[in-house]
Amino acid sequence: MPIRQFFHLMQIVDDHDLAEARYAALLAPEVFQPKGWSDFDKRWASLAVIGPDFVLEIMEPSTAEADRNAPLPKFHARHGQHWHSMSWFVDPAEDLVALGRRMEDRGCRVIDPYPPGLAGRGDAPLTLFTHPKDTFGQLEFQALTDHSRRDPHLGPDWTGSFWRDEHPLAIERCSHITTVVSDLERARSFYEDVLEATAFHDEQSGDRRSAFVMVGTETVVELAQPIDTDSRLGRDLAAHGEVPHSVTFTVADLGAVANHAADISVRVADQGSETILLEPDDLCGALVGFTTRRLPGDPRR
Q1: Domains (range + CATH), the chain
Q2: Would you say the pTM of this structure is higher than 0.85?
Q3: Res. 54: pLDDT tops 60
């Protein structure tokens, strides 16, 4: 299995500094790549780890007229503030090429966007992006290199125990990332056959049919097809297409979540017996949830 640890979930925002401040109050991320500008990508971005296994990339695309046709400014102009894409590490570099070929054999368009010489790369690609219409939302795969090791959650001694033992939310791990799809069977087939992801649980509940799949070594993705077009999930698909919809963290106590959210003036959008969703308008467009539920058949310890 060439896919390894989680690289990041990317969020497109209007104002990077505002988003970073709101996440600092809510989740206390450990920023390991501070805000920086990429003239190639026409954006400001940072990377931060939360808990044992989740990495957040906050990205503010350029709004300059000269940059409006670049991919990230185009997404921002079309979708506004929203989750954008998921990314994983692949190890070693030659596995990245093999994975790209496997996706192309399946009819998926794959892009190596960065020219040789950029950011120290050689002739072999270090990053591959997929076309979102071919892979049920855009995916990114990054070769695991020595440069990647700046991510503290890749270190052998990393536990992320601060968020479980000291932070008010008592986050145990990322439960799952939900991505909305229009055809659950086709999406599941792609994840299983091309990404070698293991599907371990299927269910229908409320507004969706779902398949939970284990991608790489630590990440569960919920592939969710709406069955109610007027639900939040259904409206997201109608407005934005197949795209990451939410991230949900496992916690021990929903009451602690509600209290902490109230303390920092973040509203609760929806609350059930096992899950709380926070108001996206208070988190720069991101839907973030917390759950006490343990996924049936979850292969992680």
Answers
A1: 3-154 (3.10.180.10), 161-291 (3.10.180.10)
A2: yes
A3: yes
